[in-house]
Amino acid sequence: MLHFRKITEVSSPIEEVAALHRNPEILKELTPPWAPVNFHRIDPQAEGSVVEMTLWLGMIPVFGEPNI
User: Fold this and answer.
1) Residue 35's closest CA among 10, 16, 14, 53?
2) 14 CA to centre of own chain
3) Alpha carbon separation from 29 to 18, 25, 47, 59 (Å, rounded)
4) Using H for helix, E for strand and C for coil, what is the string for 11-45?
5) Any residues with CB less than 8 A from the CB of 10 and at least 6 apart, and which?
6) Residues 12, 24: Cα–Cα separation, whole Å
7) How many CA atoms lie within 13 A of 53 on its CB side?
8) Do the strands 37-42 and 60-64 form a parallel or antiparallel pair, or are they unpaired?
């Protein structure tokens, strides 16, 4: 299985960063408008949360449920 890991330093208080990541709408806001993604369900972001989404690869829909 492929894995991607990226470390980024953020110069904001941890409370602000945590609040941003708990916002269930943040995935929609961070997804570029040209990205072919449809979100069907986004739980509030916490351990064990689920996101139901469809990523379009051309005419082929790829359904996913990544767990947080």
Assistant:
1) 53
2) 19
3) 16, 7, 20, 24
4) CCCHHHHHHHHHCCCHHHHHCCCCCCEEEEEECCC
5) 17
6) 20
7) 17
8) unpaired
Q: For the whole model, what pTM was predicted? A: 0.55
Mean pLDDT of each 10-residue bin along the chain, 68 residues long: 85 90 80 87 76 88 78
Q: Cβ neighbours of residue 7 under 8 Å, at least 6 residues apart?
A: none
Distances from the Cα of 22 to the Cαs of 18, 43, 49, 66, in angstroms? 6, 9, 10, 15
**Tokens representing residue 7 in the block:** 């470390």
